[in-house]
């Protein structure tokens, strides 16, 4: 395949690389077509490995990555269409910028792969691509969305994340795609054996006995406040009343959960707000997403409202979305140049909270690790010193539209449950709200675009997983071992 690709004009190979990247994106939610994504990744590996020069290899990987990210992250245009008359013109530029910006990681992998030759080159690309995807989760605060390993969410191999996390899952996937390119028939057999081992482990883990249920009944509230109208002052009372009604309806649960920024008022500037929420809870604590401020600083927060109307717990989002929730280096620009329009500390964006925090909700409800919105896409933020009993994500996915963004966000939260062996509860403003067990299975959900609530029994937790204890260390070790293998001198051929 490599020799065949090398003879084609560069322009055609660039088109093929883009097509392979787009097909690879079909493995992401909501499609989950891993059986299409894996051959597409193999094709892209062959295209990059067949490049004549390092520059060509980097360019082909860049365009393959751009095709993948443009298709997988097409939801990125949705925030600009909320107020299309003002910001709609920015949407195509944002999509191109993020697609090629993230594809730079793949371009570096393509360049590094060309340092090898023969069978080493496809394996080198698989290794470098695995390392690039790992780096993408950390560099410049990280953005590990649409990782290659995410194609397995919902399939048996996803359970491997409990051992080596999403980066390890990605590395195994890139290797499985590269082996047939590197060694043809023998490589195809090795690839099939690797995939069978991944699927076999997943099937075994899913067949294990279920842990005993945790006990409490939780109410997941989904108010379905459309983003275009969410902050309309004339509708604030209507949206808040809807939340209260969904909370007070039916039998009383043990805990009520509202989504991110569901309360349309500031915590510190709405007297009587908390007692009203507590009254709707009828003796059950209510967890609500709310904004709060101190002077000219503001936080995207989660508050636990106790039965008496007091604050029983508070968490401030710490992993903020660049440009969406704050301007990178905005505070520094204010200090150096007096540019207030970029500074979070001057009220132009959110301030970051101190970091991950486990909240003790008391007897019966246990200890919970709260996550706000896209904090759930960072596995490193869930590895806390104190192991929680369950995970809670509150989010407002109305920003992501209704096509692929909300489904991809849900898929990543499912992976977090697998990685830690903990149940996860998700309350989303417009959906998809869900109850997820400790093996990443969705037990109950509220679909997109519907207002309502679900009373669910919290599933039990599994014992701590290898990934929860070791994090990325096994993957880093595997990458170093592969790099050593690829750098080893060739054995001289016998005469």
TrEMBL record:
<dbReference type="InterPro" id="IPR036526">
    <property type="entry name" value="C-N_Hydrolase_sf"/>
</dbReference>
<feature type="transmembrane region" description="Helical">
    <location>
        <begin position="59"/>
        <end position="77"/>
    </location>
</feature>
<dbReference type="InterPro" id="IPR003010">
    <property type="entry name" value="C-N_Hydrolase"/>
</dbReference>
<feature type="transmembrane region" description="Helical">
    <location>
        <begin position="35"/>
        <end position="52"/>
    </location>
</feature>
<keyword id="KW-1003">Cell membrane</keyword>
<feature type="transmembrane region" description="Helical">
    <location>
        <begin position="160"/>
        <end position="181"/>
    </location>
</feature>
<comment type="similarity">
    <text>Belongs to the CN hydrolase family. Apolipoprotein N-acyltransferase subfamily.</text>
</comment>
<keyword id="KW-0808">Transferase</keyword>
<feature type="transmembrane region" description="Helical">
    <location>
        <begin position="89"/>
        <end position="111"/>
    </location>
</feature>
<keyword id="KW-1133">Transmembrane helix</keyword>
<dbReference type="Pfam" id="PF00795">
    <property type="entry name" value="CN_hydrolase"/>
</dbReference>
<keyword id="KW-0812">Transmembrane</keyword>
<dbReference type="Pfam" id="PF20154">
    <property type="entry name" value="LNT_N"/>
</dbReference>
<keyword id="KW-0012">Acyltransferase</keyword>
<feature type="domain" description="CN hydrolase">
    <location>
        <begin position="221"/>
        <end position="460"/>
    </location>
</feature>
<dbReference type="InterPro" id="IPR045378">
    <property type="entry name" value="LNT_N"/>
</dbReference>
<dbReference type="InterPro" id="IPR004563">
    <property type="entry name" value="Apolipo_AcylTrfase"/>
</dbReference>
<protein>
    <recommendedName>
        <fullName>Apolipoprotein N-acyltransferase</fullName>
        <ecNumber>2.3.1.269</ecNumber>
    </recommendedName>
</protein>
<keyword id="KW-0472">Membrane</keyword>
<comment type="function">
    <text>Catalyzes the phospholipid dependent N-acylation of the N-terminal cysteine of apolipoprotein, the last step in lipoprotein maturation.</text>
</comment>
<feature type="transmembrane region" description="Helical">
    <location>
        <begin position="188"/>
        <end position="206"/>
    </location>
</feature>
<feature type="transmembrane region" description="Helical">
    <location>
        <begin position="123"/>
        <end position="148"/>
    </location>
</feature>
<comment type="pathway">
    <text>Protein modification; lipoprotein biosynthesis (N-acyl transfer).</text>
</comment>
